[in-house]
Each structure stands twice: as C-alpha cells, then as structure tokens.
Specification:
By secondary structure, this protein is α/β, with parallel strands linked by helices. About 45% of the residues lie in helices and about 15% in strands. Bound molecules: pyridoxal-5'-phosphate. Pyridoxal-5'-phosphate binds near residues 46, 89, 213, 229 and 231.
Amino acid sequence: MTIVADSSRREELLCRRLEALRARVAETEVRAGRPPGSVTIVAVSKTQPPESVRTAFACGQRVFGENYVQEGVAKVEALSDLPLEWHFIGPIQSNKTRAIAEHFAWVHSVDRLKVAERLATQRPAALGPLQVLLQVNVSGEASKSGVAPAEVPALAQAVAALPGLRLRGLMCIPEPTSDEAVLRARFRMLRRCLEELRAQGLELDVLSMGMSGDFTLAIEEGATHVRLGTAIFGERKKP
Ligand SMILES: *Cc1c(COP(=O)(O)O)cnc(C)c1O
C-alpha cells in the first residue's frame, strides 16, 4: 500500500511541476511577444529511470532528451510502446553515431562534419530524416564543446547538403554562471548565428537554448526549445 501511495504521490508532484513549467513558459511567451505554443519543452530524463519517463508521459509530456548514448538507447527501447519523441543532446563520440541515428528523432549536439556524415549514412531510410542542430560554442575559452561561431556557416552549409539529415537550427550550453547579462549575451550570439544562416538561404527554425536555471531568459532571447531536467524531475543523484 505504501508503495502505491508513494508512486501516486510522485506522479502527482511531477504533474504539478510540469503544469507549473508549462504555465511559466506560456507566460514568458506572452511577455516576450512570442506566439503561444512557440516553445517546446524537452524533458531531460538523463539519470532518471524509465518509470519517471512513463509518469511524465502520463502528465502529457511527449518530448524527452538524453545525454548518454547507452543509457538513452536503453530507455528508448524500454519505452518503445509509447509515442515519444527522443532528442539526443549529449556529446557525440564518432563510434556511437549509429546508435543515435537508429534510435533518436533529433540530435542537438552535432559539432563536426565527420559526425554529421556518419549520422547521414547510418540513418535508416524508414525512419525519415534525422532532425539536426549544430552545437555552437558561445562561451569561447570557457567551454570546449561546440563549433566556434566563425565556423558555423561552413559547417551548416555542409551539413545541410547531406542526405538523411534535416538541419533545423542551433543549440548552445553557456558556461555555468548566474550572471544574467552574460547568459543573455550568449543566447543573443546563438540567435545572431541563426539569423546569419537564414540570410545565407538556409531554412532554419530552431534555437535550443535554456535549461532549468535560465529558460525564461532564453525564451526572451528567442529559444524555441528549452531543455529542462531538474525543474521537472528534481535534483539528479550524482553517479
Ligand atoms: C542535463 C542537461 C540539461 C538539463 O539541465 P537542468 O539544469 O537539469 O535543467 C539540458 N541540456 C543539456 C545538454 C544537459 O546536459
């Protein structure tokens, strides 16, 4: 009995958190003059058991993000009975691209051509194109992952030409800071990169930026996808 009570309490808590987040996203859209529904919440379920994903699904969440290939693939397979949209958002080693190409609908973290080429060849045709974002290093020296802003146009043109992939936009992870001015500057840089690509004729519509601590700022600066882990599932246990 206690187990049932605990799990239904957990479900209620998760649903309440999700509802509160949807309301904050909606409020921020209005305040920022963004169309209602223009921001998608990607629920970052890394380190969470499949049961937590089921619970979030029961509360209406459909889009989930994973960081680690092995853990992500296991969850995608364990939950294949549900109509979920899976996004890969973690660092990509080139020997792991096949698992990503075969199990995910989106990848946010492409930062080099070699990885994009492998994903393109390995994407099963039956799944339709893999939706791709380029991860941009908007923090300079303070961060190592992501393509440098100056190199974005060349990489974007090359990736856009690959079969099996559909380039949709850009993603960033600013350096950890609580300085709102710095975060805004990073988000603006990503937006400017996207605008530059559009001016070059690429049809891109996605900016993946903002996490639990800064998603309202990111929405104000143009985010279309916010990646929320802690705000939905609570603090992650350290491995
Ligand atoms: C873990 C992670 C998130 C979610 O972070 P929270 O602060 O828990 O919301 C978002 N994006 C990426 C790339 C992550 O690794």
